[in-house]
Amino acid sequence: MFKLLKQKVSNLMAKTNRLVLLRHGESEFNLKNLFCGWHDAPLSAGGVEQARSIAAANLKSAGMEFDKVYCSKLSRSKRTADLILSELECSFLPIVSDWRLNERHYGNLTGVNKRELANKYGEKQVQHWRRNYDGLPPPIETSNLYFYEICNSSDFQNVPIDEFPLTESMRMCVDRVSPVWEEIKKDVLKGTRVLAVVHGTVARALIKHVEGLSEEQIEKVNIPNSVPIVYEFNMATGQLIGESKYLGDVKYIEEMKQKVAAIGD
Ligand SMILES: O=C(OP(=O)(O)O)[C@H](O)COP(=O)(O)O
User: Fold this and answer.
1) CA distances from 99 to 82, 155, 173, 217 (A)
2) Tell me, what's the ipTM?
3) Ligand 1 atom at minimum distance from 30 CA
4) Which of the following CATH numbers is that of domain 15-261: 2.60.40.10, 3.40.50.1000, 3.30.1330.60, 3.40.50.1240?
5) Ligand 1 atom index nearest CA of 199
6) Is 49 part of the annotated catalytic residue set?
């Protein structure tokens, strides 16, 4: 009760509205360099540690407090959110878990090793599938190891049948995320301090909406795991103030951005 009251008072005293975006901690599939998409890969042991010692620790040392959390239906996003809230001692916060914040559906690339794919089709084709705004992986087939797990997942039961993707480009993902961005924006402009724990492509889709980046600009953005990205908005006008601020060690963040951009080993 006291904590809730303290949160409300500090909220009223806040001079700006805040949104923090975060890509979940490293997943087992990130670790193995596999395309993941809608497959529900758990966090790796390192990802759990990242959520605590990088995401939560940096939020804590920057004095960040929140009123509401958004995450996807995938456990790597939900678990990262839970770990952070526990570290920040605010597990009581409301969490909205929305399928529209699921990672981009990687179609039949789901479960495929990025380096092996590059050896077969060339780096240019793989980077086209990964980062080109209209790069569309081949649709997932019933022979894909993860087809039935994804289609039958009880977590995706409320996905309308005509919106259930078999593959997605960045453009399709940006459009899918758009209604949730409108909800988040409404919250933020009301003064609700929002933490959104999402995925690489969904973070990029939200960044495109927040910063109004062009298609070419967003193709070059790469999001490291567990690094909080802070946006401040003018409370009166709702205008974005300044640029995004990545919390944490600058050298580490730059190295991780480059690692995400590369196809890897
Ligand atoms: O599932 C994925 O993203 P996630 O680990 O953020 O959920 C993708 O496989 C990330 O791969 P990409 O960086 O090649 O787009």
Assistant:
1) 17, 8, 12, 26
2) 0.95
3) 5
4) 3.40.50.1240
5) 6
6) no
